[in-house]
Sequence to fold (374 residues):
Amino acid sequence: MPIHFPSHYDPPAVTVELEGSPGIIPTDEIQNLVWSEWTTATPSYRISYHDNVMTRETTRRFVIPARDRLWAEWTAVDETPLTGWYNENAFITGEITYHASEFYGRQNYTWTQWQHTGHSMVQQFRHFQVEMTAEERQAREDARQRQREEESRRRLAETQRKQGAQTRAMELLEMILTPEEKLWRDQHDEIMVRGSDGGMYVIELRESVHGNIRHTDEHGCVLGRICVQPGMYDSDEEGSHALPLADGWVGQYLAIKFNEATMKVTGNWSSLRECRQPDVPILGRGARAA
Amino acid sequence: MTTATDTAVNLLSIADKTGDTRIMWHPDSPDEVEIARDAFNKAKKKGMLAYAVDGETGKQTGEVIREFDPRRGKIIMTKQLQGG
Fold:
């Protein structure tokens, strides 16, 4: 199939025929040729062309670095000089210059060479995208809507499960707190606990089980902060899950109250300090753990 | 709930994603004791920590336990402590 190159200069365009037998390469081989040109470092074929302007046919042979030509055609960012130049009166063997911006239908042209079906293939694709009956569109929208509803149901169920789990875990915490601890909790939103070794701790009931325990003294001075909690993740056949926060508070409470020594060596301490207000009155009765 | 009355049952609470799983047993019922023991042992195999809490909430005592004791009023199992 002849490849048509518009001329850069005034003379009419020239038609270049790829060498082959009998001087024309069959169209279904062009793709392989182009790919070969693209992937190999050097051109693998020579092109002979006929200069239709001249009164006599002149055959010239020159080598086009097809990979550069192909890329220039495809991107057409700016003028890309290729090796070789064409003069209206004579052609200098070995060099010809093309300006990619002047190639007709740059990308389409290149794509045409590559595909052999080119425009018709593009048109077919566009046709496929647009052609959808009303029923098909409705069915597609219905499927999307069902998917959105299912996602919403799943998300709501997960949130409700988590909320239900927190409520249930809070019930357990309520079962094990002493009346005095409950009173302090209601007033300060934290639990003050006497440890099994005599230490005093405050569990802050905020949205975390990390770094929420203060070690205090009888004056209420903060002697340090400890980050320790039971494992908060579990896994089963449904996957990995987080335990509700209140489970963490239950674990912290029990650890302080019945396992203080282990709790102290397991946790990570920070903000350690000594009491600087030894003359401050001791905390009131309501703050003392049973 | 604790073993304070003749109708009292004991409680095993195992922390999980639902909050906790609760199993109750009467110390005089071998079947119920066995069910609770089985659940306790399974949780221990998973590495959970068990606390036995006795007495009314006004006067609590408790300790870490390693074996199931059907006489304990309340057994609460949590995951192992971790430094954060």
